[in-house]
Amino acid sequence: MLNHIKNIRCDLNRNIVKFGFVSFLMLFSGMGNAADDDSKAGNSIRGAKEWADNCSRCHNMRDPKEFRDDKWRLIVSHMRVRAGLHGQQTRDILSFLQSSNYIAVVNNSEPVKVANTPDVDGESIYNQTCVACHGANGAGAIPGVPKLSERLSKSDATLLGNIKNGLQSEGSPMAMPAKGGNPRLSDADIKEVLIYLRQTFK
Amino acid sequence: MKPFSSTRALIICICFILLGYSNFSLADEDTDALNTRIEALEKQLDEVKNLLKQQVEQSATKAEVQAVQQEVAVAKSEQAEWKTFDSGVHLAGYGALNYSAEDNSFNQALFAPIFHYQYKDLFLLESEFEIQVQDDGSTEFALEYLTADWFMNDYMALVAGKFLSPIGQFRQNLHPTWINKMVTAPVGFGHDQAAPVAELGVQLRGGIPVGKTMNANYALYVSNGPILELNEDGDEIEAVEYNASTDDGDDNKTFGGRVGLTPLPNTEIGFSGAFGDIAIPGEDDRDYDVIGVDFFTRWKNFDLRGEYVRQQVDALVTSAAPDSQEWEAFYTQLSYKFLSTKFEAVARYGDYNSNHADQEQEQWALGLNYLFAPNAIAKMSYEFNDGLAGARTDQDQLLIQLTYGF
Questions:
Q1: What is the ipTM of this complex?
Q2: pTM over cut 0.80
C-alpha cells in the first residue's frame, strides 16, 4: 500500500515538473529574437560592470585586450551558455571587450582629437566606468585590483597616461583596459576623474 | 622794345640746361629705387616659389588622398568584419601536466581543446575533447561534450547533444584545470562518483533579470540518463555511470536542472536536482534522483565556494542487486589572492560518503598557486586523505601541476 502511494506521489511530482518544463519553454520562447532589435545594442559601460560582476565568479579575469574582436564574440557566446547570461548582458560585455581593443589600437597609433571640456563630472564618470573594478571605496572590487590610495602617489602625467592607455599592475592577474573600457571618455573627462580620485581616495 | 641782350639770353639758356639736367637726375633716382624694389620682390617670389615647391613635394596628390581614403574605408570595413560576421570559428581549451610526489611520477598529461563555431547570433557549436596519456603509455581520446546551441531569444538557448551536467557548478564550470584552483577535483566530484558528469539529450539554458540588480540563471534538461555499474559479483550496484550513453536502457528519460540566483555582484547560490528511472538491463526500472546545492561569494581577496550533491538509487527487491545505494559529497573551498604578488593560497575540505567503504574519503587540501598569467598557473597542493585503511583513498599526497588555458 505504502509503495503504491509512493508511486502515485512520484508520478504526480513528475507530471508537475513536466508541466512546468513545457510551460517554461512556451513562456520564454515567445519573447522574440533580441539580436534583430537595434535598441538593444551593447553598452560598453554596462558591459564593464557585467564583466566584473559575472566572469570572475568562476575563473580568473582575462585581459580585455587578450583576444581579437571576432574571437571575443565567439567566447562571449560560449560564456552566455556556460554562465547563464541573458542576451543584453552578453551584448554589453562584448561591447566592452571590443571597445577595449579599439581604444588600444587608437592609442597606439594616432592622437585623437578630444573635447576641451568634460562631458560630466569626475564622480559620475567614476561611478559609471571605474566602480565595477575599483569599488565604491576605491579599495578594489576584484582580487588583484590595487587600492587607489596606493597608486595616487604617482604624478598626474603618469596617472593620466595609465588611465588613458590602460595598465598591467604588478602582481595583478588582469590589466586595466584603456580608459577603463569606456571609449567615450575624452582627455578632459580623464582629468576630471583624476581630480575626483585625488580628492576622494588620497 | 628793349633789345634782347646776349648776356640775358645766355643766362636763360644756362637755366634751361640746368633745369633739364636736374630733371634727368631725379628720373635716375626713381629707377634705382624701382630696381631695388623689383629685386626684393623677385627674391620674395623665389622664396614663395620654393615654399610652394616644398609644399607640393610634401602634400599629397589627389590620387594619394583617394588612395588613403580607400585604405581608411578598407580598414573600417575590416574592423567591422572582426566585429560582425556570419560564420566564425574559434579554438580554445586547456592543458595540464601533473607530478605526484607520492608516486614520484609525472602522472598526468592532459590536452583539452575546445572548438567553437558560430553562425550569426543564432547558433553555436561547442565541442571539447579530452586527450590524456594513460598509465600504460597509450592515449585516451574522449568527447567531453558536443552541443549545438540555438539562441532562441534573449533569455533562452536550446542546447542539444552531449552536455556537461548542470547539477551543481564544479562539473559544468569549474573542472578545467586552469579554473580549478586545486590540482584535483574535490572528493566525490570525479567521474562516476556522487556528482553527475555528462548527459545526452536536450537542455534549455539562459538567464533572466530579476529586478534591477538581481539575475537568475537556469538550466533544465531531459536526457537518456545514467546507467548502473555493478560489482564483480553482480549483486551490488557499484556506481552510477555518466557516460552519456546513446542507449537509454530503461526507456524512461531523466529530467533535471539547476536554478542559480545572483542576489549581489560576485555572489551566487544554486539549487539543482534530477530524477528519473534507471534499470539494470533486463530488469524493472527503479527510481533514481539527485539533489544539489552550491554557492559562491567573494569578500575582498577571499573567494569562498561550496557544493553539496546527493545521488540515490532506490531498492528493487526483484533485482539481482536489490539494495538501494546512495552517494553523497560536499566540499567547501576558500582561496586568497595576495595583492602585489602573483601568489594565491587555497584551502579545501571535502567529504565523500558512499555505501561502499572503499569509495568513502574525507580530504583536507592546502594549496599554493603561482599565476604567471590569469590563465597560466603553477599549482602545488598537499592533500590529507582519510579513507579505507591501506587503500589509495587513504594516502596523503603532494601534487604539482602546470596548467594553462587558452
A1: 0.80
A2: no
